[in-house]
Specification:
Rossmann fold; 376 residues; 7-stranded parallel beta sheet; single chain; 6-stranded parallel beta sheet; 2 domains; 44% helix; elongated
Length: 376
């Protein structure tokens, strides 16, 4: 079973890239032979280290704002040669690239899947260009796909409400590598170490975590905030760490180092504010926190709501994030069950969040497309 995966991203050593690769590895474990089509001249060492994946390169513009258009044009010109060389049974294409893929896939008679990992998250002119491209892809390209995949139910609601599509859509949320993320066998009881990792941008509400930490310290709670990631808010956290031992701040780390930095923590934080990208994304950080044996406090964005019934996850009001996150943390500390709740989080991760579990519906879709193509 041969699968061609169209991925218009730079495979760096980060969480986003690792999610793409982990999904592919899970499908590989189910019997699929995987080949990636990726941009040429990118730093793709992380994907090239997976020796079982075959790699095809297509040249794409390096100019931000033109990359999407350039990528689709390049696919229209070059994908046919790749199909002839690889002879795939099914193609998966990210929405960014779907225009080029649908024309070539139809010509060669290969079934293909329209795959949406996330709507645009950027603002300003770049964000407007991305939304124009995103809307066009969903309106004109998804209707010709043989299958459509999104990450979450909230993302499905977004596209159905925005575009009026009624065709079947399957969900394939992000998962977590249970062998990579593990809780530390014995954690210290104090200080309580809170953690956030990922992009440090104002839109993600991360600066509220400084206010939360200061409020907890003022109330004489023995806490430390650990933050690691990159973004425009990093200097504010570094400034706090210069004058206080209650902050542990790191720049962006390699993805392979993330599990260790989570393993000795107690409470994972998800301070998302309102926003389409945060409301519809699959909360992969939530799954990593759970697999690492952490309790979690996060705002009530739509992507978090399906997991609100978990006793180890306190979902709080995003309308008043500083006060509600502070109260959620205090409740967890006061209950005195952080250790046992962390154990429950790990068990939940094993039952619900493994890559093998979350890719099963996608695997069945691909199998059906392969069989239907062989038996028209």
């Amino acid at each position: 079973m041969r699968l061609l995966y169209i991925a218009p991203i730079n495979f760096e050593d980060d969480m986003f890239s690792s999610a793409w690769i982990s999904r592919a590895k899970a499908l590989e474990a189910k019997g699929w032979q995987i080949a990636f089509v990726i941009p040429e001249n990118s730093n793709n060492s992380i994907i090239r280290n997976n020796e079982n994946f075959r790699i095809f390169n297509i040249k794409r513009s390096s100019i931000i704002g033109l990359q999407g258009i350039s990528w689709e044009r390049a696919l229209r010109l070059g994908l046919g040669n790749i199909i002839e060389k690889y002879n795939p049974d099914v193609i998966i294409s990210d929405w960014n690239g779907s225009s080029g893929v649908l024309q070539v896939a139809e010509k060669f008679g290969v079934p293909w899947v329209f795959d949406d990992h996330s709507p645009p998250a950027d603002g300003g002119i770049i964000g407007n260009l991305q939304w124009y491209h995103y809307d066009k892809s969903w309106k004109k390209n998804s209707i010709y796909a043989d299958g459509v995949v999104v990450l979450t139910p909230s993302q499905e609601s977004l596209v159905r409400n925005r575009y009026g599509h009624e065709f079947p859509i399957i969900k394939c949320q992000s998962g977590v590598d249970l062998d990579l993320f593990n809780p530390l066998t014995r954690k210290t009881s104090l200080p309580i170490r809170m953690v956030y990792h990922g992009s440090l941008t104002p839109e993600r509400g991360v600066l509220d975590l400084i206010k939360v930490t200061e409020a907890l310290l003022s109330s004489r709670f023995d806490v430390i905030l650990r933050v690691f990631g990159s973004g425009p808010c990093l200097p504010q956290f570094q400034k706090m760490a210069e004058t206080s031992n209650n902050y542990e701040v790191f720049d962006k780390v390699q993805f392979q180092d993330v599990p260790k930095l989570l393993s000795d923590c107690h409470i994972g934080l998800l301070p998302w504010s309102s926003g389409t990208a945060f409301s519809t994304s699959s909360p992969i950080k939530l799954f990593e926190y759970a697999a690492s044996g952490l309790t979690v406090v996060g705002t009530d964005v739509e992507s978090n709501i399906p997991f609100a019934d978990s006793e180890w996850f306190k979902v709080v009001d995003r309308g008043d994030p500083v006060n509600s996150i502070r109260k959620g943390i205090i409740e967890l500390i006061s209950e005195g069950r952080i250790s046992s709740l962390g154990n429950s989080a790990r068990l939940d991760a094993e039952k619900r969040f493994s890559w093998d579990m979350v890719t099963q519906e996608l695997h069945l879709l691909l199998l059906n497309l392969r069989e239907n193509d062989r038996n028209p």
